[in-house]
Amino acid sequence: MEAPGLGRGVPASPREGLVKNVSLESLQLCERDGKAEDSGVVEMELPVPVNIRISNITCDSFKICWDTDPRTKEKITHYFIDLNKKENKNSNKFKHKDVPTKLVAKAVPLPMTVRGHWFLSPRTEYTVAVQTASKQSDGDYAISEWSDIVEFCTADYSTVHLTQLLQKAEVIAGRMLPFTVFYRNQNQEYFDHCRDSQGGRMLPSVKDNSGSHGSPLSGKLEGIFFSCNTEFNTGQPPQDSPYGRYRFQIPAGELFTADTRAYFGDFYCMYTAYHYVILVLAPRGSPGDIYCSERLPELDVTGNRFLTRVCGPDGRVEFRHAQDVILEIIYTDPVELARGSVAQISGHQLMSLSTVNAKKDPSCKVCNISVGR
């Protein structure tokens, strides 16, 4: 069966010069569960799509194009599209005889844009194959053989999607509290290694896969994680930590200078009431700054809802952080231990609160946007 209105606005020929978008709402599920004799497939020679090309890939859409014999174009009324996540690429192909559902689209001039946030996920590998089809007067279809399988990977979130996440995070960020230090918790062996093997420096490393699946930071940006949240009743960093019993503290002004740029990176939770916001601090002109400037929304360091640096009339600089979200700060340059101090904390190591490679809760309405997870 066909989607109502699927063919409206389709030009009579490609010469009209318009590339049509076909949303996944216009890709109709074909429901056939009969036997071979009533499968709705008739014999007719149709061209097999060759030289399939995927382009204009985003986190939730792509364009697809292929070559066919121009002498048979007039026969083609539909495309059958087999789109699967790569791990399922060996699953059975669409066969009218025994597979009840597959995507069917009315034939439009190529390239055709396939989009639909409920179907495609960001940073995910897919396989795609195509058949051409001709709908007969009695409702049956003639179909070609399947094309070769083509693989592609969807893209990361764009700045448009990250801005949507930023706006959702702003809603729950809460009031701003003063702080004076950034801190990083690790085990003693980590700091010994920094002293003995890294010239007394903490070096950036590639961010893990925690947070949103479409984050352009995961597996790509190099940095050092810091925290800055304080306890409401003391105004000091908490004494508990999921990452280790030793803490490096550094005055906030050492990392967050007048020449530091701030970027919004992510907003997520881990099936708990706590929500996390990832921010990036990068010295202006550094490799980290260049990477982020092309991919992340930049924050006004004097007037955002998460982390601010404000110079008062008397010249004193005050730093503030959001109260109601847990901030994870990625600093993109090496940091010398001599610029701060390392000491043992008195609290507990709460391993259950670790966000290392933590997966985002895809069902949370607070921190998810409508395009993939």
From TrEMBL:
It comes from the Eukaryota. CDD domains: FN3. Pfam families: fn3 (PF00041), PHYHIP_C (PF19281). GO terms for cellular component: cytoplasm. Residues 48-157 form the Fibronectin type-III domain. InterPro entries: FN3_dom, FN3_sf, Ig-like_fold, PHYHIP/PHYHIPL, PHYIP/PHIPL_C. Transmembrane segments: none annotated. May play a role in the development of the central system. Belongs to the PHYHIP family. This is Phytanoyl-CoA 2-hydroxylase interacting protein-like a. It comes from Astyanax mexicanus (Blind cave fish).
